[in-house]
Amino acid sequence: MRSRLTPYLLALPSWIWLGAFLVVPLAAMASVSTQSGNVIDGFVQTFSFGNYADAISQYSPQLLRSLWYGGAATLAMVLIGYPVAYWIAFRGGNRKATYLFLLLLPFFVSFVLRTISWNFMLSGDGILLGPLKDWGLLPSDFQITATAFAVISGLTYNWLPFMILPIYVSLERVDPRVMEAAHDLYASRTTVFRKIVLPLSLPGVFAGVLMTFVPAVADPINAAVLGGTNNTMIGNIISTLYLTNANYPAAAALSFSLMAVLLVGIFVYARALGTENVLEAAAR
Amino acid sequence: MKLLKAYTWLVILWLASPIFVMILFGFNDTPSKSNTSWHGFTLKWYRELFAIDGLTDALITSLLIAVVSTAITVVIGTMLGLALGKHRFKGQGATNFLVFAAISTPELVMGASLLSLFVSANLPRDSITIIIAHVLFSLAFVTVTVRARVLTLDPSLEEAAKDLGASPWGTFRQVTLPAILPGVLAGAMLAFALSIDDYVVTSFVNGSTITFPLWIVGSVKTGIPPQVNVMGTLIFGIGVLIAISQSIAARRRG
Q1: Which of A214, A245, B152, B246 is most deeply buried (CB count within 10 A of its CB)?
Q2: B157 touches chain A (CB under 8 A)
Q3: Which of A5, A31, A80, A109 to mutate to test the interface with B (most CBs of B within 10 A)?
């Protein structure tokens, strides 16, 4: 009897924590997102789903910009990260762990500090562009910070390791004997890659996209530090609506729209590969 | 393949480049508050590391919050990791899903929804609410790390302990815990790192409490003092040392 209860007792504290501080707040936020009123008179539940339409149409420039920055950064991460994961998985030899450690090195420095350092390197008189301007290789009014490129490169920089790791894990699992068999059957290197390696690594790519796209779209730091005033993203809007304007319904509606995109992604992934696989992908 | 190797190193260097900049400018003999151009080498900022009261307080607050939230997270996360890795029970699939949802909920959404909860429950925002939030976002990571380790456990060891008359608690303390300890330690490091680094969630639930990352972002406009670089460098150095010594210890064991 005791042993049958054990798993439930072990899970109980976490259930309480996750229930009280994740599930309940998210449900409350879903409820707030359809309320109306203001911070002085209080908010009343009116099931005004129009909040979503209003918030999305009012902030559509920032929403579209966030989707475009996040999407471009995610695509850049796949393109930059895939060859790295490929090389480490197939040519890393017994130094694989070292290469992965080097890729994770930036995580020993605070996210905030890294973004500020990156801004500092890109800034007009910073240590990258300054010398180039002094040597006359760049016009003196050339700048990268406060442009779309700066924000996208910052997002790419910050989440790239989260893209490389799941791709690496899926490539590592490709059985080399399958590739040898294909070679023996006269498949060219391109064919082996196209027909065997690439399809087998797609779950890794998908897991990477899942782990990077929504955080990148929702990130308020890169836009604030690197983007100047003309590159506000939806994360900045949600922060401002919550912390400055106290417009909770609109902020909740925007947050929940983001969450919905993510939930659909997770659901598709869990359906296709099972929850255990989802966890494993997340564990790496 | 040579080309790919060079490319991989280039990406590694790119990822590490802001670290070099951070370390270098901790040694910068800058005369003003803005630390953006090179003025020669000095160790002054290492001597005057704690000269800025607000910054020192923020660092201490961050360390305290990280220690407390890591302790809570490790205990309940290890319990959940054991439940998921060793047992079959009703609601396991749902629990797995919940853990994954906790990992992938955007920080912004997590912070915003927690703030709504604290506001509507009339809870004052201070270190306690920050700790609640930090346990929440590190819990799933600890669970997943411990669970991975539990899955490699040989169940016959625990059976043997039981057959030799060990109590369930004795079996756990003398057999199970030592075997999963590397996973627990890795989870603890992860929880500590996530806590001390967090900006987004904390910015929603902090009230008037200022942590290290919040202090840094708050001083972006007026200029980041070199002490921040020095503290970042020291945290980086300690983190790398711990990680390397852990991996050496793991290799010896294994």
Answers
A1: A214
A2: no
A3: A109
Element (H, E) at A39: none
**pLDDT-based confidence at A1, cuts 50/70/90?**
very low
Quote the CA–CA distance of A117 and A111 in Å, as a whole number.
10
One-letter amino acid at A22 equals L
Q: What phi and psi values does residue A173 have, to the nearest 5 degrees?
A: -80, -10
Does residue B108 belong to the interface with chain A, where contact is any CB pair within 8 Å?
A: yes
* Residue A88 vs residue A147, higher pLDDT: A88
Euclidean distance between CA atoms B140 and B100, whole angstroms: 7
Arithmetic mean of pLDDT, A225-232: 83
- Which residue among B8, B106, B217 places its CB closest to the CB of A262? B106
Task: With respect to residue B18, please indicate whether it lies within any of the assigned structural domains.
Answer: no
- Structural domain total, chain B: 1
Give start and end residues of each alpha helix (H) in B164-225.
168-171, 177-197, 200-205, 212-218
Q: Which residues pair with A35 in a beta bridge?
A: A45
Look at residue A37 in the predicted model and tell me its pLDDT.
78
**Sequence-distant (≥ 6) Cβ neighbours of residue A169 within 8 angstroms:** A204, A281, A284
In this structure, what CATH number is given to the domain that contains residue B180? 1.10.3720.10
How many A×B Cβ pairs under 8 Å? 254
By C-alpha distance, the chain B residue nearest A119 is B18
Instruction: Confirm whether the ipTM is greater than 0.90.
Output: no
User: Domain residues for B70?
Assistant: 52-223
Chain A interface test: which of B20, B96, B105 (most A C-beta within 10 Å): B105
Q: Report the residue from A87, A117, A262 with minimal CB separation from B22.
A: A117
